[in-house]
Amino acid sequence: MAVKLKSPAQIEAMKEAGRVSALALRRVGEAVEPGITTAELDAIAEKVIRAEGGIPASKGYGGFPGSICTSVNDAVVHGIPSRKLVLREGDIISIDTGAIVDGWVGDNAWTYPVGKVAPEVQRLLEVGERCMWEGLDNARPTKRLGDIGHAVQSLAEAAGYSVVRDYVGHGIGREMHEDPNVPNFGRRRTGLKLLPGMVLAIEPMVNAGTRKVKQCSDGWLVRTRDGKPSVHFEKTVAITEDGPVVLTTEEGHPRPV
Fold first, then answer.
1. Are 210 and 228 contacting, i.e. CB atoms less than 8 angstroms apart?
2. Residues 81-99, buried b or exposed e (16+ Cβ, 10 A)?
3. How many degrees, rounded to 5, is the angle at CA 97 between CA 248 and CA 154?
4. Which residues of the chain have pLDDT under 70?
């Protein structure tokens, strides 16, 4: 494992990619409504990212055709935007946006309700977001990777949910995916020691039912095996001497958790 520590100046440089990625995510989230297609959402994101001087990080990555990932209901991650997929009242959709600016990558995701959703789905959304914040709060120099995963897993399972184990968070910098992997499960005080200069994309994927997933025939889309809904929340965070600092924020400067 070759973890690439970032200097304070490099972390500062990553803030613009984080800003653009966060802006694109918000703009797309504001457009989520019944009747819109995921291809239309993809077009919004690409327009915002390019207008801000960035490049969509997902477009062409490993052959992925979209500028964002759009995963609906029981889709966990990596959904390809489509003109045929029309959002309906009561759906949920995970939007994953990444932007490259000056060679640095910012990566974040959020799961949005489409109109009014069922109470049990709203609860899943709320718990999934809390899981992300718990994971981020454990991104500190006094901690280890297992502390991040344990924080996410324990909260999700206490609520009666499960966390996906086949897909995890990751280091990020000049590349979208760098070492280390950041599991959303684990035991306290185990795993790699967290150090100032690490920059991580922490992204819990929380399922209403089983943690088991399956990859679809397109080679990208991942669904829950039992067809129950899944939510996905993600932010890019820098570990500093003073604690975790979220870089994917529209303010244009890093923000403490």
1. yes
2. beeebebeeebbbbbbbbb
3. 70
4. 251-257
How far is the first Cα of the chain from the last one, in angstroms, to the nearest whole number? 27
- How much is the pLDDT for 1? 75
Q: How far apart (Å, rounded) are the C-alpha atoms in residues 219 and 214?
A: 10
Backbone angles phi, psi at 242, to 5 degrees: -95, 0
Q: Are 141 and 212 in contact (CB under 8 A)?
A: no
Say what the pLDDT of residue 254 is.
44
pLDDT value for 4: 96
Phi, psi of 225 (to 5 degrees): -70, -30
Q: Distances in Å between the alpha carbon of 28 and those of 5, 35, 48, 172?
A: 31, 14, 9, 23
Q: Which two tokens stand for residue 17?
A: 């990619």
Look up the pTM and report it: 0.96
Going by the DSSP 8-state scheme, the letter that residue 99 receives in this structure is: E
Q: Measured between alpha carbons, how far is 69 from 81 in angstroms, rounded to an integer?
A: 7
Q: Quick one: which of 134, 171, 163 has its CA closest to 10?
A: 171
